[in-house]
């Protein structure tokens, strides 16, 4: 296991946090407490993935966001609440969106369309990603300490059960997201086909 984590663990953190990933950072923090990983490298990997992912989504939003919303107008109605929050609390929204489950991937897209400057987003995104990575990796580390204190020798078994449960939750969220994306695509196709009939 140690060899696997040394070879792929930090890369896995980077890739998974690029997509979403607070769960993997917490689990890596627990693994760091147990001595399998380096807590500082866990934090750096989490920061890099989170920061780069949000910069990527921001760039996509800046380049293609308006045309995508014009193509699927029902999508803009579903995310109008995010536009309102960005307009009203721009800096606070940029600093906090990654801490709210379920809105991370859409937020940089919305922020880009809202006209926030690239430099402002870059700086605030870096600050928020650093705080996010530090808090979740430290949270996992201290959770590992609490597990050892309360579970003693059963800590490894409990960690495996927890990892399995979190993997199931992640799989459920992924499937749910795919179903939702498919429904949006079908609705957009139906709306696009309606005027030609």
- The tally of helices reads 9
What is the straight-line distance between the termini? 59 Å
The overall number of domains is 1
Query: Which consecutive residue ranges, at least 5 long each, have pLDDT under 50?
Result: none
Helix content: over 70%
Number of strands: 0
Order of helices and strands: HHHHHHHHH
Specify the overall morphology: globular
Beta strand %: under 5%
Briefly note the structural class of the backbone: mainly alpha
Report on the biggest sheet.
none
Radius of gyration: 19 Å
Query: Mean of residue pLDDT?
Result: 81
Short synopsis of the structure:
The protein has 197 residues and is an all-alpha fold. It has helices spanning 2-19, 22-33, 39-71, 73-78, 80-88, 90-96, 107-113, 118-151, 155-193. It has one domain.
């Amino acid at each position: 296991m140690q060899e696997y984590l040394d070879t792929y663990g930090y890369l896995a953190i980077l890739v998974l946090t690029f997509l979403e990933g607070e769960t993997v950072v917490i689990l890596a923090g627990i693994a760091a407490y147990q001595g399998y990983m380096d807590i500082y490298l866990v934090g750096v990997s989490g920061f890099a993935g989170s920061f780069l992912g949000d910069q990527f989504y921001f760039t996509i939003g800046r380049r293609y966001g308006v045309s995508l919303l014009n193509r699927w107008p029902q999508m803009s109605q579903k995310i109008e609440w995010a536009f309102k929050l960005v307009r009203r609390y721009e800096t606070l929204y940029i600093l906090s969106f990654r801490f709210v489950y379920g809105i991370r991937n859409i937020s940089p897209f919305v922020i880009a369309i809202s006209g926030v400057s690239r430099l402002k987003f870059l700086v605030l995104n870096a600050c928020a990603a650093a705080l996010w990575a530090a808090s979740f990796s430290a949270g996992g580390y201290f959770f590992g300490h609490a597990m050892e204190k309360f579970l003693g020798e059963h800590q490894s078994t409990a960690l495996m059960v927890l990892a399995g449960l979190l993997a199931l939750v992640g799989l459920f969220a992924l499937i749910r997201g795919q179903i939702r994306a498919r429904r949006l695509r079908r609705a957009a196709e139906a709306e696009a086909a309606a005027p030609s009939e």
